[in-house]
């Protein structure tokens, strides 16, 4: 009797807990929410979730709607796609997993309940593809002569369709030359600088050396990562030389700097020669030859001549040569005469017996053999400092001089004997 009561109690509990499974379901199964559409980048994982209530003894199946291919029924995977799997929780949450989605996985997926009639709902799987370039339809590095034209092409693919733009790597604007209205093609045009150019094709006309450089083709469609391609445009032209100073002068014994600016592409061979022999100048104890690169096509040639001598004076030529031509320019170096050495005479200082100071004359001290001020700053050569000889206050005597310089004094002694009374008379008149 006790065993029968226990069995009845267990049946009642089972009926309360699983009424649908025991009696086929008192309620018809239905979906408790829609399937969410998915947008997944190529290669990522995707999971559809189907929410069901009152499932009872019915089963849930997954079908790819566009191909009618059954993916799974209840707990069993039907498709041969090894990347597909299913899972569920409490018979109310049913999941379809697709690992590493590919382009062919995109489409409409259907969650079905095998009722009569069948119940179903669908969800869309969209596969997005980050941008990529078509190597066969995308330009590579190009070379063009100055004044010519070049067309760059950049084809990108991806889902959704990528947006293609162009920029210069150095940040400079892209020069688009557009013809004037009514002008003959390739005759008259005006330049329009643009920081960014949109489109798969970039056409540059009448290209100049300043447009040489790296151009970036950038493709993006909102799916990371965006991609870019570097395309280098090399503009070729023969060498050109600019000389800031063709005439340079400096005193002997100083350092002199000569310079030339060269533009060439491809890069030129640059050197210095001195006429009339025309021998190439190389770096030595007295010559320093340097080349400073300013840009892909600009260099600065510097020749420093140390301790200028007589035989250094003459004509120097800077030369540049590449595969398209050669050019040279000359600089004439001449000597500037140095300042003459002079000696200033010394005037005698007089004192009176009462040691009374009397003003009105100036003493000229014997100066050192210093040169006068000469402004000879020429390309790195600094001139001599200036010399100022200050006037000084002296004492003169009423009766006799205390000291009279001799030897180098060019003035006769008697001159001061005559001048002294005159100065005394002048002082007396001032006192009146």
Which topology of the largest domain does CATH recognise?
Immunoglobulin-like
Helical segment count:
3
Based on CA atoms alone, the radius of gyration comes out at 50 Å
Going by helix content, strand content and strand pairing, the class is mainly beta
Gross geometry? rod-shaped
**Total tally of structural domains:** 4
CATH class of the largest domain: Mainly Beta
CATH homologous superfamily title of the largest domain? Immunoglobulins
Q: State the CATH architecture of the largest domain.
A: Sandwich
Could you list some keywords that capture this structure?
rod-shaped, 42% strand, mainly beta, 4 domains, Immunoglobulin-like, Ig-like_dom, 432 residues, Ig-like_dom_sf, 3 helices
Describe the structure.
The N and C termini lie far apart (164 Å). This protein folds into 4 domains: 20-128, Immunoglobulins (Immunoglobulin-like, Sandwich); 134-236, Sandwich (Immunoglobulin-like); 243-335, Immunoglobulins (Immunoglobulin-like, Sandwich), CATH 2.60.40; 340-432, no CATH class. The chain has 432 residues and is mainly beta. The chain has 3 helices and 28 strands. It is rod-shaped and about 135 Å long. Strands 11, 14, 17, 19, 20, 22, 25 and 26 form an 8-stranded mixed β-sheet that branches. Strands 2, 4, 5, 6, 9, 10 and 13 form a 7-stranded mixed β-sheet that branches. Strand 23 (269-274) and strand 24 (279-281) form a beta hairpin. Residues 1-24 form the signal peptide. Residues 29-126, 131-228, 238-334 form the Ig-like domain. Its main location: membrane. It is found in: Cell membrane.
């Amino acid at each position: 009797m006790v065993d029968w009561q226990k069995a009845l109690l267990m049946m009642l509990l089972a009926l309360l807990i699983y009424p649908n499974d025991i009696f086929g379901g008192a309620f018809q199964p239905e979906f408790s929410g829609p399937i969410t559409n998915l947008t997944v980048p190529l290669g990522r994982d995707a999971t559809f979730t189907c929410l069901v209530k009152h499932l009872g003894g019915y089963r849930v199946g997954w079908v790819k709607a566009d191909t009618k291919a059954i993916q799974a029924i209840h707990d069993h995977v039907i498709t041969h796609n090894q990347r597909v799997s299913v899972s569920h929780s409490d018979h109310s949450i049913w999941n379809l997993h697709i690992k590493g989605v590919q382009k062919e996985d995109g489409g409409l997926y259907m969650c079905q309940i095998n009722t009569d009639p069948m119940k179903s709902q669908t969800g869309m799987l969209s596969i997005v593809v980050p941008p990529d370039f078509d190597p066969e339809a995308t330009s590579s590095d190009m070379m063009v002569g100055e004044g010519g034209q070049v067309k760059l092409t950049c084809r990108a693919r991806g889902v959704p369709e990528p947006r293609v733009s162009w920029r210069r790597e150095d940040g400079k604007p892209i020069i688009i030359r557009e013809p004037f209205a009514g002008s003959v093609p390739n005759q008259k045009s005006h330049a329009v600088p643009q920081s960014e150019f949109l489109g798969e094709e970039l056409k540059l006309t009448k290209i100049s050396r300043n447009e040489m450089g790296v151009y970036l083709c950038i493709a993006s469609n909102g799916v990371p990562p965006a991609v870019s391609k570097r395309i280098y445009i090399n503009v070729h032209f023969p060498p050109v030389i600019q000389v800031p100073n063709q005439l340079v002068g400096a005193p002997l014994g100083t350092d002199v700097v000569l310079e030339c600016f060269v533009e060439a592409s491809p890069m030129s061979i640059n050197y210095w020669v001195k006429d009339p022999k025309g021998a190439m100048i190389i770096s030595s104890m007295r010559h320093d030859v340097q080349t400073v690169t300013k840009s892909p096509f600009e260099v600065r040639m510097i020749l420093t001549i140390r301790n200028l001598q007589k035989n250094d004076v003459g004509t120097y030529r800077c030369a540049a040569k590449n595969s398209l031509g050669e050019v040279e320019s000359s600089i004439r170096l001449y000597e500037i005469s140095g300042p003459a050495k002079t000696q200033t005479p010394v005037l005698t200082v007089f004192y009176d017996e009462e040691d009374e100071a009397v003003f009105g004359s100036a003493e000229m001290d014997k100066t050192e053999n210093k040169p006068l001020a000469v402004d000879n700053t020429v390309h790195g050569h600094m001139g001599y400092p200036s010399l100022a000889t200050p006037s000084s206050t002296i004492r003169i005597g009423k009766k006799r001089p205390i000291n009279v310089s001799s030897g180098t004094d060019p003035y006769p002694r008697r001159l001061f004997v005559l001048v002294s009374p005159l100065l005394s008379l002048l002082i007396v008149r001032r006192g009146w």
